[in-house]
């Protein structure tokens, strides 16, 4: 490590977590400056602190002011990125610039488009802890009249039903779940409200406005914005333009050349013949399925794949994959099972299963309500393929509302908007998604590895989860264990049912 002068030490001290250790954090610097400092690792023999000191010294020299304005440092970083990232295509540098975006008053439907990006972190307004009102939906000015008026009234009617049912459901839950002897009144009230909102969230339309916090790197953001600009939804395109404008204030060079992805636009036309092939015969009526899970495909030799991968990580380099696979094939099934279970013996409560489990693959078709999908979508290692949202698969009525005698009112509110959805889908199929209530079922195909299966079924079946996706996680466990009996009892799945949605931790 280079020895810095006292002046240089003073310059960099506000921006590094320590001055003399090999591991340190950076803070208070422009994102593009951070990105260029990391990029220097590959092109400079100097350590990062020395390069930072040079940038700050040049900043002072050029500006004659304290280095905290970063004018020269930022300009130099931009010039570097223009040459190496834009000019030579070294886009990995942009992964060191982190962008945080606050996105407010955006529809749930639009947030799903944003959250389709794998490399990002998201925090969204919760339907469990926040009540929504009848002004909280995205308008559709592009809809022709009278569809626009019907759309507005349909959304408002869903919010009216939602608002009217809140006190009645809350009263029913209070009667069924009186306050515990050791439970504070405030905690009890919060719990009752959360359970109420959980039961009624299905009445919220996909147009419901929400808030979303996004953290990602500049490279991923650039790819996402190009994808969003190609969306058939005007709201998403407008949102992408706004996100791009604000990101330019943080990483002006690294997200500079965002353009609409023409390939994605063309793909909608390219795959149209496939859609026609999938249409049912004239007069054929498809019965709406109940929510559930169908196992589509799985590796016939999944156990052997996992054991071979485990052996690969434990073996010497003189052993090839072919040799290891042969050794695994040569032992009995009981020995294979014993070896597999041994790999999980010391697993702690917060440990993921070994990476070797990624060697086995499985795929499911899920039919679940859109509210559950809103929670389930964020599993980053899943490859999901999703159909356009609609009302053709029916909707889910929480059992508790049936028990309370309120199911008819819940259903009536949803039934009233289905004709509006049908009228809009005939003219504007993409915009018709906005009026679909969260209780309506949708279909997705999930392709995943075994390691991610463990993560999904264990996390989403936990008692703190919503009943809608708890059922999906439990079914994902049940169906795969039938195909792969060697998995039975190896995943920490809560297969119990709990009343009133989630159970307080």
Can you describe what's shown?
The chain has 505 residues and is an alpha+beta fold. Among the domains are: 6-96, no CATH class; 300-357, no CATH class. 47% of the residues lie in helices and 10% in strands. It contains 19 helices and seven strands. The protein has helices spanning 6-12, 31-40, 48-63, 71-87, 108-114, 147-176, 185-200, 218-228, 234-247, 262-270, 272-277, 302-314, 321-329, 333-342, 370-376, 399-404, 407-427, 450-460, 467-483, and strands at residues 98-107, 121-124, 209-217, 292-298, 361-369, 383-386, 441-449. The chain has a four-stranded antiparallel sheet. A three-stranded antiparallel sheet has the order 1-3-2. α6 packs antiparallel against α17, α8 runs antiparallel to α9 and α12 crosses α13 (321-329). The model is unreliable at 86-90 (pLDDT under 50).
Overall pLDDT level: 87
Structural class: alpha+beta
Cα-to-Cα separation, first versus last residue? 49 Å
- Tally of helical runs: 19
How much helical structure, as a percent, in the residues?
40-55%
Strand order within the widest sheet?
Answer: 4-5-7-6
Please give the number of β-strands: 7
Low-confidence stretches: 86-90
Element string (H = helix, E = strand):
HHHHEHEHHEHHHHEHHHEHEHHEHH
Radius of gyration: 27 Å
């Amino acid at each position: 490590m280079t020895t810095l002068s006292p002046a240089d030490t003073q310059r960099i001290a506000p921006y590094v977590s320590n001055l003399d250790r090999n591991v340190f954090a950076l803070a208070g610097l422009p994102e593009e400056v951070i990105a260029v400092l990391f990029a220097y690792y590959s092109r400079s023999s100097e350590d990062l602190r020395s390069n930072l000191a040079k940038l700050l010294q040049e900043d002072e020299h050029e500006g004659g002011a304290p280095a905290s304005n970063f004018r020269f440092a930022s300009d130099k970083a931009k010039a570097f990125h223009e040459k190496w990232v834009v000019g030579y295509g070294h886009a990995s540098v942009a992964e060191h610039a982190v962008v945080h975006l606050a996105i407010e008053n955006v529809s749930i439907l639009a947030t799903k488009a944003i959250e389709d990006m794998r490399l990002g972190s998201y925090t969204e307004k919760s339907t469990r802890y926040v009540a929504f009102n009848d002004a909280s939906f995205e308008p559709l000015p592009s809809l022709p009249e009278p569809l626009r008026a019907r759309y507005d009234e349909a959304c408002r009617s869903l919010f009216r039903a939602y608002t009217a049912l809140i006190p009645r459901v809350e009263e029913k839950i209070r009667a069924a779940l009186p306050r515990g002897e050791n439970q504070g009144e405030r905690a009890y009230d919060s719990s009752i409200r959360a359970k109420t909102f959980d039961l009624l969230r299905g009445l919220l339309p996909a147009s419901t406005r929400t808030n979303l916090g996004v953290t990602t790197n500049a490279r991923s953001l650039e790819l996402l914005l190009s994808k969003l600009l190609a969306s058939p939804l005007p709201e998403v395109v407008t949102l992408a333009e706004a996100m791009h404008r604000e990101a330019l204030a943080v990483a002006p060079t690294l997200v500079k050349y965002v353009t609409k992805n023409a390939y994605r636009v063309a793909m909608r036309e390219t795959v149209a013949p496939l859609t026609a092939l999938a249409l049912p015969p004239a007069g054929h009526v498809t019965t709406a399925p109940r929510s559930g899970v169908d196992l589509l495909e799985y590796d016939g030799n999944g156990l052997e794949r996992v054991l071979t991968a485990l052996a690969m990580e434990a073996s010497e380099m003189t052993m090839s994959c072919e040799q290891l696979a042969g050794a695994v094939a040569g032992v009995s099934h009981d020995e294979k099972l014993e070896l597999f279970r041994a790999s999980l013996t010391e697993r702690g409560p917060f440990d993921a299963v070994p990476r070797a489990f990624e060697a086995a693959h499985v795929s499911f078709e899920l039919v679940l309500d859109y509210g559950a999908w809103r929670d389930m979508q964020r599993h980053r290692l899943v490859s999901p393929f999703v159909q356009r949202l609609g009302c053709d698969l029916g909707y889910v009525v929480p059992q508790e509302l049936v028990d309370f005698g309120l199911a008819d009112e819940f259903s009536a509110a949803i039934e009233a908007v289905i004709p509006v959805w049908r009228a809009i889908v005939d003219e504007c199929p993409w915009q018709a998604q906005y009026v679909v209530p969260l209780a309506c079922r949708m279909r997705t195909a999930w392709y995943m590895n075994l390691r991610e299966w463990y993560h999904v079924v264990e996390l989403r079946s936990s008692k703190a989860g919503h009943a809608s996706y708890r059922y999906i996680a439990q079914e994902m466990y049940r169906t795969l264990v039938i195909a792969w009996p060697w998995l039975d009892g190896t995943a920490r799945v809560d297969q119990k049912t709990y009343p009133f949605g989630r159970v307080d931790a």
